[in-house]
Specification:
Elements: H1 17-29, H2 36-39, E1 65-67, H3 90-98, E2 101-103, E3 114-117
Antiparallel strand pairs: 1-3, 2-3
Helix pairs in contact: 1-3
The structure holds zinc ion.
Length: about 130
């Protein structure tokens, strides 16, 4: 988001992942100011680590995932009741999904700040 943030992010270049994130970034940058609190201070992209509570590598280990502002996330493991909640606006989710990013807010084990580049999941099956 050159206008609102200017932060440089490490992201995988394979399969156009970084190019698609750039498109997301440009569109997020054009959202009204009320959306900026979710996206200006992102939690991270590339980080070599397992998924919390498992030995499996996180998609962040491959540089294909991004976490938004942690202050507004709802994460199933942090939620004692495991009652689904979400604070991330649909406008932000729509922009990521349009460019091939799966939203963690759609998972049973929800993680609403998390988006990962999985274009194969948006391909039409004929
Ligand atoms: Zn994440």
């Amino acid at each position: 988001m050159p206008v609102h943030s200017g932060a440089k992010l490490l992201f995988n270049k394979n399969e156009n992942a970084a190019a698609q994130l750039k498109k997301v970034s440009d569109e997020l940058d054009n959202l009204p100011n009320e959306f900026m609190k979710y996206i200006v201070n992102i939690d991270g992209t590339y980080e070599y680590r397992p998924i919390e509570g498992t030995t499996r590598l996180s998609p962040h280990s491959y540089g294909i995932a991004i976490d938004l502002e942690v202050k507004y996330t709802c994460y199933w493991l942090w939620d004692k009741e495991h009652n689904y909640r979400n604070e991330i606006p649909k406008e932000i989710v729509d922009i990521f999904e349009k460019h091939g990013f799966v939203w963690g807010g759609r998972w049973y084990h929800y993680d609403t700040m998390h988006f990962e580049y999985r274009p194969e999941m948006f391909e039409r099956v004929l």
